Amino acid sequence: MRISILGIEDDRFHRPLQLIANLFFEESQVVMANDATADVEIMFSVLISEKVAVTAELKDGTNQVFASSFQKELPSVGSEKERLKVVKNAVSHVYLRVLQEFTGITQKWGILTGVRPTKLLHKKIREGIPLDTAHRQLQDDYLISDEKIQLMQQIVDRQLAVVPDLYSLRQEVSIYIGIPFCPTKCAYCTFPAYAINGKQGSVDSFLGGLHYEMRKIGAWLKEKGVKITAVYYGGGTPTSITAEEMDMLYEEMYASFPDVATIREITVEAGRPDTITPEKLDVLKKWNIDRISINPQSYTQETLKAIGRHHTVTETIDKFHMARSAGMNNINMDLIIGLPGEGVTEFTHSLAETEKLLPESLTVHTLSFKRASEMTKNKERYKVAERSEVEKMMELAQEWTASHGYVPYYLYRQKNILGNLENVGYSLPNQESIYNIMIMEEQQTIIGIGCGASSKFIDPVSGKITHFANPKDPKSYNESFEAYTDEKIKILNELFSANNSPA
Ligand code: SF4
Fold first, then answer.
1. Whose CA is nearest to atom 2 of ligand 1?
2. Is the CB–ligand 1 distance for residue 235 below 6 Å?
3. How far apart are CA 72 and CA 50, in angstroms?
4. Between helices 200-224 and 243-256, what is the axis angle to 10°?
5. How far is the centre of ligand 1, averaged over its atoms, from the C-alpha of 186 (Å)?
6. What is the pLDDT of residues 409-449, one digit of tens each?
7. 283: CA distance to ligand 1 center in Å?
């Protein structure tokens, strides 16, 4: 879909208009000019006085017209940037409305295109805005539907029940540890994940670097008296390495990190069932790992084959029981809505199988076509469900979780996600992952160590976020982990210096 925008020449509007167009069309291109090849043309009129008044008229190829208008007060005092924000918001309102009318699609998240909607509600609560006013503002400013506002509120309530001190955890940090190996690479995957077979040399060097980072970061935390809230081992699949390697890694964690016994939660992703063995479960138990994730994604064998997950459905079920018998009592399972070839029938089957296991938490993802994945590069080979069927599956997940005692406790959205829906983490009460709440709500620094690990440094006073990424591939990591560790410690020193602590 090619959209020609007339009446707005300022290039700063291009990105928000393109992002909103992406909500409606799989392939879209917004052109800020008259364009004879465009499928639709949208003529804007933007009048600015003490208010901004915007009208838009969309004309399609048949000369059918869809129109909308909106006006909003401009802040009388305030920077140019703030005024521009209000103008962009007003333009987005009418743009969304004409596209909704034109396509017949209602966007339940309104003009919101960001990854973390619940953060907006947390911000308003922190500012002391009463809930009904906060909800009304979300509706007015972003056109978010009642249904999604209720979902946000439910999630925020749950998060504050699980982490009552969420707003005062900036003086602590959480740690993400990235282990970039998997048995094979899945077709939809864009994580740093390298098939492990035949790579022992690379694994050895990588683990050498990882132990080094753990020691250095751990020493810094001890020296500064900074506590760890939660630790998360992700990747890749952290259980791809051997039981002995896992044992040494956790031993390092206990030796290097401060006061491991008081860390609120330690999670290890054991996503691929084909990596789980009794020996590895013993190691997890030995080091008091609280939570693991075993990810079926689907309980339909043909789907697993089609997406390159070389394990069987039976293996997922068997490994779940094995983990239970080994004493793992907080197990998360991931399902993905909209995998190739899957519709309501297959998803209903996945929920029925989940019912036999009842993991403590269930994360329901919606398939997203990320640019770098094999699936996106060969899109024509993978047939995925229509938007309405994806929505139906999402509803089924909501109904199923509610009727089985699960509550939603975090959500995030992605670009190019099927049906413009969201990924939702559901959990039985009090089994929620604290780390997932930390990473989604950005209330404290997350130090990323290991391959492909992103650090997110949050200034304890201003809340300003600085991103920092470790190299994604093991070779670059092995060559440079010392420099990357130094860089992170430098940033940490600035953030946690004596004259940067909350009053
Ligand atoms: S198991 Fe996860 S990290 Fe590994 S290749 Fe598959 S999707 Fe990627």
1. 236
2. yes
3. 9
4. 20
5. 5
6. 999 987 766 667 789 999 999 999 999 999 999 999 999 99
7. 22
Spatial neighbors of 345 by CB under 8 A, at least 6 apart, are: none
Taking the C-alpha atoms of residue 402 and residue 397, their distance in angstroms, rounded to an integer, is 8
Cα 452 from Cα 149, distance rounded (Å):
33
Q: Which residues contact 433 (CB under 8 A, 6 or more apart)?
A: 230, 265, 267, 291, 332, 361, 410, 425, 427
Cα 380 from chain centre: 26
Whose CA is closest to atom 8 on ligand 1?
A: 189
Atom 7 (ligand 1): residue with closest C-alpha?
189
Q: How far is CA 298 from the centre of its chain?
A: 20
Sheet strands (E) in 85-224:
173-179, 181-182, 194-195
CA of 442 to the centre of ligand 1 (A): 24
Atom of ligand 1 nearest to the CA of 309: 6
Ligand 1 center–CA 58 separation, angstroms = 43
DSSP state of 447: E
Strands 423-427 and 361-366: antiparallel
pLDDT tens digits, 282-340: 999 999 998 999 999 999 999 999 888 888 999 999 999 999 999 999 999 999 998 98
C-beta 237 within 6 A of ligand 1? yes
